[in-house]
Structure formats: structure tokens, C-alpha cells
Amino acid sequence: MRASVLYSAGLPRPYADSKPLVLEDLDAPAPRAGELAVDISYSSLCHSDLSVVDGVRVRPLPMALGHEAVGRVAAVGEGVADVQVGDHVVLVFVPSCGACKLCRAGRPALCPKAAEANGSGDLLHGPALLRTRQGERINHHLGVSAFADHAVVARESVVVIDDDVPDEVAAMFGCAVLTGMGAVANTAQVQAGQSVAVFGLGAVGLAAVMAAKLAGASAVVAIDPNTAKHPLALEAGATHAGVPDEAAELIRQTTGEDGADVAIEAAGSARVLAACLEVTNRGGAAVAVGLPHPSQELTVPALQFAGAGKRLLGSYMGDAVPGRDIPLYLEHWRAGRLPVELLHTDTRPLAELNEGLDALAAGDVVRRLFTP
């Protein structure tokens, strides 16, 4: 198998020159009990991948990167009875044990056992399987390691989907769509007639825009300093788009009120999250979706919570239940209500991953897909 391995984080940019991701030939491991082998068709580059390469999200190295992908099941481990060889599957970056308090409460994205495995570079059912040619352990990225032509994952890391879904569409459902849609539908539970502001128009933010329109929001205001993304946001369902300095006035003009009912932070910035709280209506909610640098701290007027009844909600993986939500979102896509194709900027071979990191950092792409 071929996989893209990160040996050192924080190398100088441009990454096209420093080449932090190394495409290597590795021995393909067999799936253990509770695991599957998947032949990857397309993987998708996300800011969470870039954050690991930058050294912002500290992960154990070396690591085979990539956490959003689609493929076909190539082999089934012992004890897996509900997935067959040849099944079409979306890979998701948080497996869940199904037995802990949070899993039983319907919040599998917060499963502690999954968080422990993801943090250590292991898989849900056992230690890391990948090795260099010299026998050195290679850690798994979020239980997936999708920048490859093949992966071994926990059964809980896949959702079986119908064969009619094009791989180029399905590849974006395991993170971007799941996270952005879920932030609106599950975390904020936006209702028809409410107003929504979305700060940050990457793939997750644009998926949140689509979700807000789908929910029947009366106004969807999309905010990003990159004006090149504004037409795409309007095509995705935003009623208005602007830059951060225009946000408060644009929301006021659009809603006729001093704030939005729900503000989604999808930029990975504590400063942007503070801005979301500021432009949230009395009784409204600001939803934190992005992953800021661990050193960033949030300082806001405390009185706006008790005094104005505002809520600050954390949303990891959109509070999703993948086996429930991905089929539901695919039904919206089939019906033409969820134009996920808009997120797909282009497709390149895995050999161009380092160049893709630069393009993503520059804001030149939304979702670049990669083929093995």
C-alpha cells in the first residue's frame, strides 16, 4: 500500500518545497477483530490536516495523515457481520465504543475511548498497525489515515452508503458535511424563521450555510475576509455575504435586529468566536466549530450570558451520529437540497498533497480531493 506519512511538523512553508508529507510504500496490514480493510477511492484535504502539519494540532509522529475519504471494503475482520466486501463506505474520524455514558446518550462524537485512541494514534480495537520498512511504528490519523490507497479502520469508523452516490460527492461527507450540517441541525437546532450568521467559509462553514438554508432560516449571513468565497456562499444558500468588518451592520440590515439568532464560528479562532457572541441576539446561541490553536483564550463580557441569555455551544463533529446523519444528509443531496458539489474545488493525485497544503493555507481551495 501507498500512504502519505508526516515525520516532522512545523517545517517551513511553502510545503511544496519543504515536503513534510512523504508518499511511501508500506506493507498492508490485515484487519483484526472488529476492523475492516478499505480500498480508498478519494480522500479530501481539510484544515485539520493542515493544522497537524503546521504543528498546531500536536499528534504523535510519524503519522499517516488524512481523515476524510470514501472507498470500498476490501476485507472484513473477525466479528464484523453487518459489512461485506465490496460495500461502498464513507470514513468518519471519530469511531465510538457504543457503551460509554456519552455514546448511550446519543453523543458518540464525544466518546472518551475514541478520543483516547485518536489522540494516541491507535485504532479503536488495538494499537497502531502501520510500520515503516525499518519496522518503526507509524501512527494512524484519527483512526483513518486516508491519504493512501488502502486503510485498516475500526468498523465504527465507516458508514455504509448506497452505490449511486458518486465518490467525489461521498468523499466530503465524513467531515465537512457532517461537521457543518451537524452544527446547525444538531448543536444549534436551528428552526425555520431564525436568522443565522456563519463566520468562516471553508468547507465546514459552507456546509453550515447549506444547512441553515435547508432549515428554513429567514436570513443566512456569510462572513469571510476572502471575498472570492462570497459568490460561492451565495450559491450555497446565503442571503448575504460580507467581510468581518461589515458583519454587525450587515446582520442588522438583514434581520432588522441587533444580532443573529445563531452565529456559527467555523474559522478556528478565539477572536472570531468572540465576534460571534457579540453579534448574537438576546437569547441566541454562538456555536464553536473551528479548532483554534491550543494557546488561544476566549475573553468576553461575562454579563452577556446571564444578562442577555446568550449561549455558547461547543460542537465537535457537529454532534453527529454518523450512521443516522450521513444517510439523512445524502437524502437531502439526492433531492437537490444540499449542493455538496459546490465544495469540491478540484482533484489531484496524492503526489501533490504538499502543494495542496499550500493552496488550502492560501484560501485558494475549499475541498481538494486526492486520488491514490
Overall description:
The chain is α/β, with parallel strands linked by helices. Helix content is 29%, strand content 24%. It is built from 13 helices and 18 strands. Strands 3, 5, 6, 9, 10, 17 and 18 form a seven-stranded mixed sheet that branches. A six-stranded parallel sheet has the order 13-12-11-14-15-16, sandwiched between helices. Strand 17 (344-349), helix 13 and strand 18 form a beta-alpha-beta unit. Helix 6 packs across helix 7 and helix 6 packs across helix 12 (322-334). The chain is globular and about 60 Å long. It starts with a strand and ends with a strand. The mean pLDDT is 97.
List keywords for this structure.
single chain, 372 residues, alpha/beta, seven-stranded mixed β-sheet, six-stranded parallel β-sheet
Entry summary:
By secondary structure, the chain is an alpha/beta fold. 29% of the residues lie in helices and 24% in strands.
Topology:
Blueprint: E1 2-6, H1 15-18, E2 21-25, E3 35-44, H2 47-54, E4 63-64, E5 69-76, E6 88-91, H3 101-104, H4 112-120, E7 130-131, E8 137-140, E9 150-154, E10 158-160, H5 167-170, H6 173-188, E11 195-199, H7 203-214, E12 219-223, H8 230-236, E13 240-242, H9 247-255, E14 260-265, H10 270-278, E15 280-288, H11 303-306, E16 311-314, H12 322-334, E17 344-349, H13 353-361, E18 367-371
Parallel strand pairs: 4-8, 11-12, 11-14, 12-13, 14-15, 15-16, 17-18
Antiparallel strand pairs: 1-2, 1-4, 3-5, 3-9, 3-18, 5-6, 6-10, 7-8
